[in-house]
Amino acid sequence: MSWTDSSGISTKTGNGSATAGNEAIRPGGGAALTSPVPVSAAGLVDSSADIVVTKSGELFHISSRFDDAHTITIETSRSGSRNGSFNFIRTRIGSEIVHANHDDITPVRTFNTVGANHGYTCVVKVSMAGHDKTADDLGSQWTDGARIYTLLDVNGDHLTWGCPYTVTNGIVSALLVQPEQDLTPVCGAVHTQPVNVNVLVPGAQLYPSINNIKVQYMLDGKEITEDGMYSGTVLKVHESYHIMDYRAIIDFAQSHPGVSYANDSVAGAVRLSIVYTFRKGGRCHISHNFKALQKLQVMDCGFLQSMPMSLSGHTLSRYMPDVKSKSGQDFQNIVDMTGYSMNLVYGPSDYIDPAKPPNRYVDWLRDGSGLGKVGFTMGYIVDKTNSKNADRAAQTSRGWDMRSTRKSYPIAMSGLILNAGDYKTFMGYRNYLSPVEVGKATNLSVVQDDKDTYVYIDYHVPVTGANLKLPEHIGKTVSVIDHVNFTLQNDIVDSDGITFSITAGHGYAILKVH
Predict the structure, then answer these.
(1) Predicted TM-score (pTM) of this structure
(2) φ and ψ at 508, to 5 degrees?
(3) Is 19 helix (H, G, I), strand (E, B) or coil?
(4) What digits encode the pLDDT tens for the residues 368-417?
(5) CA angle, corner 450, sides to 433 and 11, nearest 5?
(6) CA 150 from chain center: how many Å?
(7) Helix count (H) and strand count (E) of the chain?
(8) Using one digit for the tens of pLDDT, what is the confidence trace for 312-362?
(9) Which residues of 182-202 are buried (b: 16+ CB within 10 A; e: fewer)?
């Protein structure tokens, strides 16, 4: 088997190798690409192609060198979310699935959680065999004697009804209120048999909750449109969509009898524009733009989230700096997540510095001997856009939500009232870590946007004179954005790269190379 470059996209030179002290670290290292890129029978990339993208229908697999022995493959779908938008599927190291990440795309929270894999929950879904409703009845209004419900979807035995909305100070909201008795027609119904509401589907959500979806996979500036295998340097997944305004859904349905609300003419409440930028090693930078199209109030919005990694025979450990011990869990000094069963939300009183919300976390899968198999880290870029520390501290009193499911939810803004036209933008990242390349560190991550390069360094052991080689950045300035128990020994990247020391059992730094 071999990779073939059927796109005609030119291959480019990789970013070089790097080492740190006695530890082999290659944050984006490699040599010049060749085309085609050979792949061994075990699925390991034998050359140093930065990225290989395999398209098959709506599926796009993103492969890259992980370390000297393994390939990382991040499986995605252009339309795999419950709303028909971009979605992650799973991540493999070699042939092993280490991360089932199908719920790692991030919704926003207005009065409901909507977008990504979520839909409005202010709907009632009735299961009724033998009902007489058809698409002709869409938009019809029905009552339980106390309120009006609007028929939004007919799917087999299932009928989905929208609850009434309210508008307060120009802000739309709606509550899930179950019918108190059978529904009878008020207006617009073609088929008027009463609806028995004895059997309701629990946890019903309205899908789709978004429209005007656009997703493009751009490799080195060229869109991938045909099935095949393509090699290149930088893959950008451009995604945009509107979260439909709930009031507009109900109003459209009522004024367009027999027509599905699921079309691009329904007005939006929010426009989201997201760019996922993938580089060598599966490193992923995320730019997430939020524009209010209607006046609204937002609840917890984080623009990043992740399910936990898992692998048979392995345990999960977690680290998150800048937080105090809470409910017996000291994430600053690494927590074994095997028996973790708490829902913990971190606010300013839980931060080491109340003005500095936690900005990242690091997970490691470890084998029975405690050796690291693969790491994963996710977080914000803290010195620009509305994801910087000062903005997050001002925009929300809740900095991180750590669920009993071990899912991780950073929070960037909450409780804000936004007017139509208000705009926010956030930058973050999600990287996988090789124990071969990270060595003794808890985290060594390189994050790159279109302007700057950031290096996140975390250790739980002291080190002296460690080197992180960045040959593609020789001569550039290094700035320390944040640090604890950390000493930078050169402020210009030289032939040894970045040289630093950690002076205590726990220390870290966020560096900016520019």
Answers:
(1) 0.90
(2) -155, 170
(3) strand
(4) 999 999 999 999 999 999 999 999 999 999 999 999 999 999 999 999 99
(5) 75
(6) 33
(7) 3, 39
(8) 999 999 999 999 999 999 999 999 999 999 999 999 999 999 999 999 999
(9) bbebeebbeeeeebbbeeeee
